[in-house]
Amino acid sequence: MWPDGRPTAFLVACCDGEFMLHSHATYEDVSRTYTPRKTSRPQKNCSRLRKVQEILSKSSKSTPDGILCILGIDSRYNEGCRELANYLLFDLYGQQSIEFEEIGFPEEVLDDVIVLIKRDSVHLYCNPVNYSYLLPYVSCWRNLHVHCMTQSEYEDEEAAEEFKIASFVNMVRDCSRIGIPYSSEGHLQTFDMFIVEKWPIVQAFALEGIGGGGFFTMKYELMDVSESLWKVFSAMDPVSLEVLLTEVCL
């Protein structure tokens, strides 16, 4: 339950690779999965996540408590967030998105994702449609908390929007400093927290009743973690090596 008594629909918790389903989730809900690339093996998934989490392990006053990645219209299609998502999800929002377009999968549904990466855990908001597509990539993440409605609940657009806002408020509740992957690699932009404040889901944080009780940028200290992430992205790992060898062979 949320603090105000509203149900969380269903919460999926994943600890040390053990996957647990609670409340309304059924096996059928999670079995209709998109077949991921061979590169999305669990050990590689976890390795990339751990590299990002290492940024949060540094003992410094400038170290954020979490890295916030918001996709789609909710971040005004921020390229830095998309780049981080592609790193963690093996280009799900890059080349593989073409495959989704071919089967008529709406972009706004696939993009309906919010991820908060903390040092020892991850919070993921998604919808019941893209949930099964994301599952093969995230199910091995340690201490994963998934905020997702059931299909029948999601059909109520107003309730779905309120649930997304409540999920966002809940996942950042314990943070004081939040890192934003503001710029994509090679396209550095001057960080402007007021631009972030204009992102739709961030604006919704200030709504009375369901929001977080004030403006997001006044409640949390925001910092740009783009350059720290670029160092992680540029490091050679088994996945990037596999991609490189594939490109050479082609």
Automatic annotation (TrEMBL):
Residue ranges of domain DAAF9 N-terminal in the record: 37-233
One Pfam family from the record: DAAF9_N
Domain of life per record: Eukaryota
Protein name: DAAF9 N-terminal domain-containing protein
Lineage: Eukaryota, Metazoa, Chordata, Craniata, Vertebrata
